[in-house]
Amino acid sequence: MKLLIVDVTTEAQAFCAKRIELFTKSDIEMLDLKVKLVSDRDFLERVSEADVVVLGAGLGEQATVVARQAKAAAPWIQIILFVSDSTYGGGAFRAAHSIGVRKVFPDSAGPLDLLQELVAINADFKKEGRAREGRVVAVTHAKGGVGATSIAAALGEVCSVYGKRTLLWDLDVETRDLSRSLTVNGAEAKIVSSWVNGSQEITRESMKEASIPISEDVSVLMPPDRMAESMDLVCHTDGMGLVQRIVDRARLMNDVVIVDTGGRMGPATGGLLRAADVVLIVIDDTILGLTAVDLYLTFVKALVGSTDRIVFLVNPYSGDLLGLPQIKAELEPVHGLGELPWRLPPIPNDPKAAIWPGSGRTLYSKGQKATREALEEVAREIGIIESGAGASGGRGTGGYGADRRSQSSDGAGSGSWLSRVLKRRTNEQGFPSFADPTDVGE
After folding, report:
1. CATH of domain 2-128
2. Which of 59, 244, 362, 384 has its CA at 20 to 30 Å from residue 273's CA atom?
3. Measured between alpha carbons, how far is residue 207 from residues 195, 200, 244, 295 in Å?
4. Which residues are 314's β-sheet partners?
């Protein structure tokens, strides 16, 4: 949010800006505040660059003229006006609102008053699409072995191919399947631990430091590097606040945030499911999977709150066991979710693509055409790529936006995400630390 503070003198401008200086660093980052100070003589040159104009009390009666000029030059602009306490008591806010001023404060108003109004403005900007707010997808499952991690990684690659800045967050604190499958293992996990134990704040800078780039558009956020912090994050009630702060900053910094929950339920996961725009429940087409989902839904519906954010994805769909209509017919009479949760196409059974872990590719780039098309359709349906959009910049499907022609036959060519990761990370013997493809149940 770009703020333009207008007042007659530099001292008056600084006095007005002092309120913002008293905001916490967290508040400034959450609002993405950028502040400029300008006089009433020069503000018209800058007003079109701003989202909010703050008029200082030093303008006096001239504030009305400035407000009208600002609205004429930039009709979308939001205006906040400070007036002297005596003027405020005389009902100045009535006249101010008539010329398009959003909020009038007495000059004695504190930082919290201004902060609350800026938060409200930011909420309006989000509704209007004027403020960046990444879409959060929580990938979860009712039973292990259904390929939830595979889906999370593949959707990340789809986003990469379509030019979406994406964070893959591995919240599977026990087995770290997503990180291992992507051969990601670094000291950045220590930063996540420091957030949990309170030795470091969750800021935009520390988020950048903790995120491990695996392509031009995609980064991975690992679980904490120590089990004590890992358990505190997902099991302790304090984890709810931590997860919310991480999600809030991740939304500001990315177009898409995909979280692999690892299926673990706890306070943090519950908070994440409530905060997510989409709760993607990956299921399989077995009887055991059906009964697991039935039990899972009994408490997940209460956690999510609104069932219109729940969607099911069958992976892999063999066609030999339960079909999607059968699964729906069994669950709908009990849970009454409606049609929307069942709209996603199933992911075809693709044995060759299923061995993607450690290859530098995912189900998306390693899969058959039908697999790729299904994953793209899923991405469109859950709103992480636009309908009708084409791949960004002519990117192929050779491993997170790499040109397909640069791939060798095993998918680990010079343009693959694996090759980029391996340039940065080797184990002590100098060999790549691959995940065992047979060891990734998710």
Report:
1. 3.40.50.2300
2. 362
3. 10, 11, 13, 36
4. 283
